[in-house]
Amino acid sequence: MILTNLYIAILLPLLTNADNSPEAIDHNNEGGDIKLVTNIIKGEPAQQSDYKFIAQIFYRRDDRVSFKCTGVLITPRLVVTAAHCITDKNRDYVKIQDLRVSVGKVNLINVENFNQMIPLALMGAFNYKNHRQNDLALLNLAEYVYPDEATPIKIYDRRITDDLNVEVAGFGVTVSGSSIPSSILMKTAIDISSSANCSTYNSNWNSNSGPQICQESYSGNDSCQGDSGGPLTTKIDGNMYLVGITNYGTNKDVTSKIVCGENTIAYYSRLGYFASSIADALKVPIGEITI
Ligand SMILES: *[C@@H]1O[C@H](CO)[C@@H](O)[C@H](O)[C@H]1NC(C)=O
Ligand SMILES: *[C@@H]1O[C@H](CO)[C@@H](O)[C@H](O)[C@H]1NC(C)=O
Question: Where is each Peptidase S1 domain found (predicted)?
Fold first, then answer.
């Protein structure tokens, strides 16, 4: 716990200017209780060869282990996921020893293998407690991952344009409202939305240049429960780059309980925004973790 706090103390001063959009809306989850969101709607199976950086995060509570979130390996020892995946509804950290990670596999790992999964040495978020739009967490693995197990993905830190080709992947539910994660990693292509479009539904929305990226779903292609922490990627010359990770979704119709699929908006944390802070925390040059 001391180590965890230390890590946060290192990250905190770097992030004092991080809140340029005060409160992202979340009509369905008012009060901070963000529902686990990780399942791809209208998706198709992801190829192991494309997703060698994928991570699965499991959580043990009262001796019961469950799949918690998707994650992404960005160095041989660092997994990124959503901050809400490692915090409770008050946005306080869960116990680090109750989290375990498995990397490099597109098939969902059986919960019974919890004790064989990789424990965490440290974890921290970017002052998520006070800034909900900073829904990004760093998980420092207790051991290095070898390239034959999983390969890290580099961060895309260029400007986000509305026409950037992206896809999202996760082990989330494939039917809205279900609680059973997908047994295989699913992916789907989505369209990034313009700031003007997103401002229509979220008066606090600023732009896709801040900590989050906004996506409206017209086609029904979407991320959903259980996809939280999963990668939003773009492919350049055959290589995948990490644009964002899944945060949460809401319906444009605030009275609707359906938060994934058609007529919804999904938010992703933008990794390019956090890249220099991550590099500083790791004490590596930014070029080592970016495109
Ligand atoms: C929706 O996702 C499928 C793959 O899951 C893809 O083939 C299709 O082009 C996507 N539609 C749009 C509008 O992006
Ligand atoms: C903006 O919204 C309109 C519908 O109001 C949609 O047709 C268009 O594709 C959206 N464009 C972007 C870039 O978000």
Answer: 40-283
